[in-house]
């Protein structure tokens, strides 16, 4: 969907019509998508410290506190801001080497090693890496591999300045779902694209999920005739490329803040009311080992961690076993919450495959045991059902 009148309804965090008409908002958006906002913020903070230093000089008292300390901080931030513009914004920096293909001993180490990349090298993906990722993208969106029945697809585009917190990104996968709202299609987008992201991690290609921060208008422009506004909806985009070690200070701080996760006791539960934390280190739940951890560290929009999981055990022949895990969204978000659930699903099944635990995803009816209807949230989305081992 690209009609400007549809965007506020289609993107959960999109600003209101009133705020989008304000001069302040338009200025902010212009700075974002011209790539100057992240540098301007550091420069403004530096100017604020220098202003305090100037005030301290005029006052003439408490010089170490009011003059020299803010002067030193302000000058350091100003120098960093200038260097960031030169090395990152203008790209005047030493050539960086091509990352090697990752060689993690198991899927869990690979999933934990994956980090969102916010600064990419100027070089293009190699033809081999690009072709391999596109083959994986096509395979992951095959209808036989989806949970839902609606088709989804990933389109490749080359463009710049599609998202303000991603420096140097110029190659993207665009996730497209049907125009008519289908929650399972959005879940499939999250699950399928995360599988592509995990494969990219193995090849040494860095990635960054971009949802609300994407410039939807420019994305659609670059898709051209591959996008039909009457049939298609752009859900999100994913930047692809090789990680650069040069990163603006402001984005470094954002990464520090976002590199935190809720404890497992706040994410996995033993009851459908999401009140009793799951004892993941006791039988029979301990059999899933690090599957809980890789879900805990799954990416989500603004790192909101809106997904929760309920483990359901049963007794068979006197032995307790995990029958299924039910995945819930804890927010009313119609788009990014189901995408986040899908990302969890991808990490969970990848972990189970590593452990040799068979299972499949299915949507259970509302009257199934443990699946109760809620007036709002949590919203039940899908279940992973354990298959009997052969």
Sequence-ordered SSE layout with sheet pairings:
Layout: H1 7-10, H2 17-21, H3 23-33, H4 37-59, H5 63-89, H6 107-113, H7 127-140, E1 153-158, E2 171-178, H8 183-203, E3 206-210, H9 216-223, E4 232-241, H10 249-258, E5 268-269, H11 291-296, E6 307-316, E7 319-329, H12 336-355, E8 359-362, E9 379-386
Parallel strand pairs: 5-6
Antiparallel strand pairs: 1-2, 2-4, 3-4, 6-7, 7-9, 8-9
Task: For this entry, give a set of tags.
four-stranded antiparallel β-sheet; 9 strands; NADH Oxidase; disordered N terminus; alpha+beta; 390 residues; 3 domains
Explain what you see:
- By secondary structure, the protein is of the alpha+beta class.
- It folds into three domains: 17-89; 107-251, NADH Oxidase, CATH 3.40.109.10; 260-386, NADH Oxidase (3-Layer(aba) Sandwich), CATH 3.40.109.10.
- It contains twelve helices and nine strands.
- The chain has helices spanning 7-10, 17-21, 23-33, 37-59, 63-89, 107-113, 127-140, 183-203, 216-223, 249-258, 291-296, 336-355; strands spanning 153-158, 171-178, 206-210, 232-241, 268-269, 307-316, 319-329, 359-362, 379-386.
- A five-stranded mixed beta sheet has the order 5-6-7-9-8. It has a four-stranded antiparallel beta sheet with strand order 1-2-4-3, sandwiched between helices.
- The longest helix has 27 residues, at 63-89.
- It is globular.
């Amino acid at each position: 969907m690209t009609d400007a009148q549809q965007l506020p309804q289609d993107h959960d965090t999109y600003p209101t019509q009133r705020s989008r008409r304000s001069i302040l908002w338009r200025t902010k958006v212009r700075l974002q998508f011209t790539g100057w906002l992240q540098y301007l913020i550091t420069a403004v903070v530096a100017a604020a410290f220098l202003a305090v230093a100037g005030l301290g000089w005029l006052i003439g008292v408490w010089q170490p506190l009011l003059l020299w300390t803010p002067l030193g901080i302000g000058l350091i931030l100003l120098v960093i801001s200038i260097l960031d513009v030169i090395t990152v914004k203008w790209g005047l920096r030493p050539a960086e080497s091509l990352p090697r293909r990752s060689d993690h001993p198991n899927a869990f180490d690979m999933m934990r090693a994956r980090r969102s990349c916010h600064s990419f090298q100027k070089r293009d993906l190699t033809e081999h890496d690009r072709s391999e990722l596109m083959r994986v993208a096509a395979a992951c969106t095959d209808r036989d591999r989806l949970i839902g029945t609606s088709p989804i697809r990933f389109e490749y585009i080359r463009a710049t300045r599609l998202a303000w917190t991603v420096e140097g990104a110029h190659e993207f996968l665009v996730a497209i779902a049907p125009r008519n709202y289908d929650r399972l299609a959005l879940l499939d987008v999250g699950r399928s694209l995360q599988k592509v992201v995990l494969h990219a991690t193995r090849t040494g290609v860095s990635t960054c999920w971009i949802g609300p921060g994407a410039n939807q208008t420019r994305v659609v422009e670059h898709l051209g005739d591959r996008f039909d506004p009457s049939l298609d909806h752009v859900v999100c985009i994913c930047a692809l490329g090789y990680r650069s070690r040069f990163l603006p200070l402001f984005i470094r701080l954002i990464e520090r803040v976002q590199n935190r996760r809720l404890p497992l006791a706040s994410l996995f539960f033993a009851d459908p009311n999401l009140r009793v934390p799951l004892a993941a280190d006791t039988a029979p739940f301990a059999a899933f080992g690090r599957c809980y951890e890789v879900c805990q560290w799954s990416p989500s929009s603004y790192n909101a961690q809106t997904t929760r999981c309920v483990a359901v055990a049963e007794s068979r022949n006197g032995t307790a076993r995990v029958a299924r895990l039910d995945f819930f969204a804890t927010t009313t978000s119609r788009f990014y919450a189901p995408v986040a659930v899908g990302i969890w699903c991808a990490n969970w099944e990848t972990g189970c495959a590593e452990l040799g635990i068979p299972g499949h995803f299915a949507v259970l009816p509302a009257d199934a045991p443990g699946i109760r209807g809620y007036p709002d949230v949590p919203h039940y989305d899908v279940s992973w059902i354990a298959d009997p081992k052969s």
